Amino acid sequence: MRGQPFQILSGEVEYARIPREYWRDRLRKIHAMGLNTITVYIFWNLHEPQPGVFDFSGQNDVAEFLREAQQEGLHVVLRPGPYVCAEWDLGGYPAWLLKDSKTPGSEIPAMLLRSPEPAYLAAVRQWMLRLGKELAPLQASRGGPIIAVQIENEYGSFDVKEDRRQYLGDVLQIVRDAGFGESLLYTADGGEELTKGSIPGLLAAIDFGTGEEPHEIPLLRALQPKAPVYIAEYWDGWFDHWGEKHNVTDAAAQEADLRAAIEKGYSINLYMVDGGTSFGWMNGANSAGNNYQPDVSSYDYDAPIDEAGRLRPKYFAMRKIIADTTHRILPPVPTSSPLMTAPQLQLTKSRSLWTNLPQGVHSESPLAMEEVGQSYGYILYRTTIAEGFTDGSDKSSLLEFSGLHSYARVYVDGQLQGVIDRRLGETQLRVTAHAGQRLDVLVENSGRINFTTKIRGERAGILGDVRLSGRAVSGWEMIPMPLNEPPSEGFRRHGCTMGPCFYSGELYVHTVGDTYLNTAALGKGVVWVNGHLLGRFWNVGPMGSLYLPGAWLHAGQNKMTILDLNGGEQVSVSAEDHPVYLQPKAESTEPARVD
Known about the structure:
By secondary structure, the protein is an alpha+beta fold. It folds into three domains: 9-326, Alpha-Beta Barrel (TIM Barrel); 342-351 and 487-576, Sandwich (Jelly Rolls), CATH 2.60.120; 357-481, Jelly Rolls, CATH 2.60.120. The chain has nine helices and 32 strands. The strands form seven sheets. It has an eight-stranded parallel barrel with strand order 1-2-3-4-5-6-7-8, surrounded by four helices. Strands 25-12-26-31-28-29 form a six-stranded antiparallel sheet, with no helix packed on it. A six-stranded antiparallel sheet has the order 13-24-14-20-17-18, with no helix packed on it. Strand 5, helix 6 (194-197) and strand 6 form a beta-alpha-beta unit. The longest helix is centred in the first third of the chain and has 18 residues, at 118-135. The N and C termini lie far apart (65 Å).
């Protein structure tokens, strides 16, 4: 540093995935591991939830996170996007970017993400200039911890026809205009994509996983033979999708890769060093072609530091490797508090999801979530079946969706007809319906895709027509249910026994501590504790629990609210000192209940 060679030994950690009360603990553990730097994504959708409305307070106070990192002896590599991927909803983009009307003849909104399109770049500029006010003063040139700033993110993997150099040049100029030009600027891509995502004159870094160094590094050397090697993402774990197996990776191979990289003088960033949790609605989704793979709320990632801040064996093994190869005496390892347990809690007070529905928006054709100003949660589409859509018999009719993102339960006069699940490629359902009956389609945004060009059309809700017996259904009422907070009134004992229900109860805690809520007995939904939305549960696995930070609890009674789409007389959860994993299955148990 300051003209001298500096080997970056970094770990990726995200302020948004760790409760603010634990930032210092995690940073201290990262430094004690022997790392000298953290790498940090910035999530645009958290900081500008509505156009021109910015939030850098509380959990979103990223400047404070970086200051605490510096106080703990860590430098910072900043990744401001505007696109970050990160298994985060829409790759970190705010959903309102997709609100604009469609381009004629296309399902893609007029605001074209990751393109030179002027309206998109104007939004990026406004955002980045505002971010610069927060973070540009924290560059190393001004005494702060930021030593490098990434331009865009793995743009070489984005399969587009537009002029790549123009777009990357536009983003580079915006980042400089935001005041970040005093830091080392770089791009990062996989080896095969380096030539498509790099910028002449800027350092190109490389991303790859376990055992891939012999193939990847030569590709980097071919592009920049004289530049230092920076492994901007070394994947030391992986994430989970709903309905698929839980990922546990090869720690011994990762430890060998880390030793080799340090001994060769490479700079390296462990992605992740502490994965944390995609609290709330923030999980993203993957897609390899036409499929859809929503991520679970846990972002534990099999990282050296687990979701609850405990240290895995690979933490200590990697710490020893760093100490041996750098010949440094490392700080002592902080202790981790034991996790808490609590007896099973029966939540018997409930109310129906259908109670006191908010005001709807009328449209002849269905509107996407974004078109009614909603970003996350659920949305109810309601209409009355007109004459001529069915033959009046008891035969079922075919209900078809030209596009549905991402999961729906279909009801006729309150009777559950079935489920449409984008994960399984489902687009149609047989229903028993007659003229004059109410048709309800309750849609969940299960997490927008965060990778590939699919992000450009990744609206949530019903996209396009709904057809019954081959005819387009019209006259819809869209009822937004963003559920930013749970309902607080209308609960009573056995107040809801069938269909989607909210449940309320009190979790008694004698001594506060971190814990995992065992959700294995639940169906599909979300959990709030003391107003904090912990994330999603789903009986398809692999996650059968939700991390509950002790920082969000207090001694005595703690308010818990659960939304379970399956319903029932009551629901039960328990607090345990370990996460629970379920045997994954393709489909969940969807009991047919009458509301």
